[in-house]
Write a structure and sequence with these properties.
Elements (H helix, E strand, L loop, with lengths): L13 H11 L12 H5 L9 H10 L8 E4 L2 E4 L11
Antiparallel strand pairs: 1-2
């Protein structure tokens, strides 16, 4: 049974987010919601930012993290579309 974590209330730490990125096989920028006003306000379109800087930005403003992310059976999937979650259950 997947665990539901309300990440805006209890955001992941840097290690957890790094682990999630690895399970998703994504770079930090690929997990960011680029349409959020925070993305532009924080200057995150800057291609020179390091992965560590992007992860720090997601931790500072968790609303930037794409959602939902489902973790199950040692794997991860972004729940958009919802059917993508079936692959890890």
């Amino acid at each position: 049974m997947p665990e539901i974590i309300l990440y805006q209330e209890t955001p992941p730490d840097a290690d957890q987010l790094t682990s999630i990125l690895a399970k998703l096989n994504l770079q930090p920028r690929e997990l960011m919601r680029k349409g959020q006003s925070e993305f532009k306000q924080m200057g995150l379109e800057n291609k020179d930012l390091s992965d560590e800087q992007l992860i720090a930005a997601m931790l500072e403003a968790p609303i930037l993290i794409e959602r939902p992310i489902v973790l199950a059976n040692g794997k991860a999937a972004i729940g958009r579309p919802p059917e993508s979650v079936l692959e890890i259950l």
